[in-house]
Each structure stands twice: as structure tokens, then as C-alpha cells.
Amino acid sequence: MSSNTESVASRIDVDSKTKLELAVEESDTSMSAYLESVIEDHIEENPSGLRALASDASSDSTETNRPQQNEPEQNFIEQMLEGLE
């Protein structure tokens, strides 16, 4: 089993990162404060779309479900970046 140690920032393409940096600059706040507000807004707008995270102590079947779990995460990131346009 290999663990993914790649940072989130390194997975964001250059154009998306630029849009995010511009949005932070326009909001006159820090990156973490801006992301926190965006995530909170998303949760308030989509409360039924939330799922509990599986704990690391659960069975090995959790490992086989991870690709499915990444799909909603990717959709959230895409929705967040679309909001920046």
C-alpha cells in the first residue's frame, strides 16, 4: 500500500491556481480564510451532499472504495473553481 503524499497545491493546474490567487487577493483575506469561507458556503448550499469520512481503522474494503470517494471531492473542486470565473 502506498500513501499519497503529494500536496493539494501541487495538484491544482496553473490556470486554476491563478484564479484562486486572484479571488483571494480580491477578498482581501488570507488563502486559508478564503478557502474556509468557500467550503462553508458550499456546505450550507449542499447539506445533503455531505458524507461521513471513513476512519483509517475500518476494514480493508475502505481501500477499494477510495476511487469512488475521490469523485465527489473532484466535483467539489471543479464547482469551487467554476465559481471563481
Describe this structure in words.
There is one protein chain. By secondary structure, the protein is mainly alpha-helical. It has a domain at about 10-45 and about 65-85. Helices cover about 65% and strands about 0% of the residues. Mean pLDDT is about 75; it is low at about 55-65.
What's the quick description here?
The protein has four helices and no strands. The chain has helices at 8-11, 14-27, 31-45, 61-84.
The Rg value, from CA coordinates, equals 15 Å
Helix proportion range: 55-70%
Outline type = globular
The largest sheet is: none
How far do the termini sit from each other?
Answer: 38 Å
**Strand count:** 0
Strand content: under 5%
Q: Which structural class do the helices and strands define?
A: mainly alpha
Point out poorly predicted stretches.
57-67
What is the chain-wise order of helices and strands? HHHH
What is the mean pLDDT?
A: 73
Output the number of helix runs. Answer: 4
Observed structural traits:
85 residues, mainly alpha, 4 helices, 0% strand
List the helices and strands and how they pair.
Elements: H1 8-11, H2 14-27, H3 31-45, H4 61-84
